[in-house]
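Propose amino acids for all 218 sites.
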């Protein structure tokens, strides 16, 4: 059950607004391969490193012991509530007309300044890479696996989470010609649907975690 939940959380984490925002900006830039490569390298190094530290701290912790441990319940309720808050904030943000030029945000300004800052963005945006990975790291620690499988699951989780950056990057490397046209269509679709997609996934994930947390209290 926990392995299935970890996989579902990894898939849901793909639509974290900050990650989608970076992918959209990078794909629209003159050098998408360079920006995506550096952002992805920094993101994976940061998330995997922090993730392994968190799991190591939680591994065998007394937080999971006792007749009725409350740590898991608290994490589910807190993260579920946070996911719902983020979904609401994204939903209530006014949608700009496509004809009106949008003022560049922090992500656009950072990535437009070149490759080194793309690497920096990968670190800064992923020190806390969304809220859903927190539940996944808690689940991984609860599995109580040995070191090797634990590291593999943490790495696998983040490889799935960053598929929105990995898939187009792989396409550019393997088949740059056909990928350019497909990425253009994909980026247009993403720009038009990212907000709706993020709200839907975060709302469903938030409701699931809150309900699960309440069931554990019963």
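Proposal:
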């Amino acid at each position: 059950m926990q392995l299935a939940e970890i996989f579902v959380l990894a898939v849901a984490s793909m639509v974290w607004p900050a990650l989608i925002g970076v992918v959209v900006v990078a794909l629209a830039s003159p050098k998408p391969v360079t920006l995506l490569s550096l952002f992805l390298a920094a993101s994976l190094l940061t998330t995997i490193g922090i993730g392994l530290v968190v799991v190591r701290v939680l591994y065998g912790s007394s937080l999971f012991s006792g007749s009725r441990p409350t740590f898991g319940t608290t994490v589910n309720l807190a993260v579920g509530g946070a996911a719902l808050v983020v979904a609401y904030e994204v939903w209530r943000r006014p949608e700009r007309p496509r004809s009106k030029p949008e003022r560049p945000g922090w992500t656009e300004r950072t990535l437009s300044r070149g490759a080194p800052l793309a690497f920096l963005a990968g670190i800064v945006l992923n020190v806390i890479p969304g809220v859903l990975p927190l539940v996944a790291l808690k689940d991984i620690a609860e599995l109580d696996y040995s070191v090797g499988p634990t590291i593999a699951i943490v790495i696998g989780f983040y490889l799935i989470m960053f598929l929105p950056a990995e898939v187009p990057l792989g396409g550019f490397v393997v088949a740059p010609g056909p990928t350019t046209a497909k990425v253009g269509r994909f980026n247009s679709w993403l720009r038009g649907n990212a907000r709706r997609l993020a709200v839907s996934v975060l709302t469903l994930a938030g409701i699931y975690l809150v309900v699960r947390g309440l069931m554990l209290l019963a």
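The chain has a mean pLDDT of 82. The radius of gyration is 18 Å.
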